[in-house]
Amino acid sequence: MPLFDVYPLYDVTPVSGKDIYVYDEQGTEYLDLYGGHAVISIGHAHPNYVEAITNQVSKLGFYSNAVQNPIQQELADKIESLSGCKGYNLFLCNSGAEANENALKLASFKTGKSRVIAFKNSFHGRTSAAVAATDNPNIIAPINAQQKVTILELNDILGVKAELEKGDVCAVIVEFIQGVGGLDEGSSDFFEQVFALCQKNNTFFIADEVQSGYGRSGKFFAFQHYNVTPDIISIAKGMGNGFPIGGILIHPDIEAKYGMLGTTFGGNHLACAAGLAVLNTIEEGHLIDNVNAMSAYFIEKARAMPEIKKIKGRGLMLGLEFDFEVGALRKKLIYEYNIFTGGSSNKKLLRILPPLTIQKEHIDQFFNALKNAVDI
């Protein structure tokens, strides 16, 4: 049976990984500066992670949410401790799209309204409401297009105000650093005014931290660079270091009701063990401190390259913008220099999303290769 052909594939077959490197079937070593879409947060095959999953699966990998699962509470307490989001409640699911889907659903339940405001170049997932709130018509099927979504420009505060005052908006969903869209950010004033307008108009303010969360921006969450308090925070990618897990943090003012949200696999024992291993490693390894130190070093190196026209993003969620499309450059980096990088909807942007364990020698390796690769 053939695989459904929806992914353009590079001719590389990773079979193993260790920290910031992956290895193909011939044993060729690749420097991984993409982390599988920012999923690999603590490095490939981290010993703490491997041990935690191995121990848990040898005891109990899964049972449903109809029974007590103390590991869920342990995970929730650890997220609260490390993130500083005191008093929030945790609902666990399986992916970023599912997290955003539940965030939007909860906002609609609680406000009694149905329209969503999202922003140009946004990406929130590929499920029903999440994909409708994504600014990419190519991945929105007619069944998704039935959702009521208004896409506005970042920093268009007058547009946000006018739409909210119509009274039918249940949620404004924000990526504080856009991922697939190309690392664009709104201004501090914009985000803080949007938050205030949401409070005034009985509208939920949703922080999509699926890619930017878990220390990647230099703080535990990217919204913490601003003076805002989201009603709901969606999380996924770096949360499980490759194990499928996602969730939403829900403000304590939002009351739960039996049956309001649900999931079969979300919050299973194995996923929670993976999630705890990630958090413990971030804490014990002081990885957020490392993010900030390595980000400063990376940016210093990037500024020394005249070919780079703009540096975008924060922490280890970075983009290097050139005055040419980077598709050929990405292929050259993979096939000639054995380095994985990412692209975005901005075809001139090279996206950098390495494991949070990256060190200066890895950054040096990348920039040595990049200098040679762009010297055509």
Automatic annotation (TrEMBL):
Pfam families: Aminotran_3 (PF00202). Its cofactor is pyridoxal 5'-phosphate. Keywords: Aminotransferase, Pyridoxal phosphate, Transferase. It comes from the Bacteria. InterPro entries: Aminotrans_3, Aminotrans_3_PPA_site, Class-III_PLP-dep_AT, PyrdxlP-dep_Trfase, PyrdxlP-dep_Trfase_major, PyrdxlP-dep_Trfase_small. SUPFAM superfamilies: PLP-dependent transferases. GO terms for molecular function: transaminase activity. Belongs to the class-III pyridoxal-phosphate-dependent aminotransferase family. PANTHER family: ACETYLORNITHINE AMINOTRANSFERASE, MITOCHONDRIAL, AMINOTRANSFERASE CLASS III. This is Aminotransferase class III-fold pyridoxal phosphate-dependent enzyme. It comes from Gaetbulibacter aestuarii.
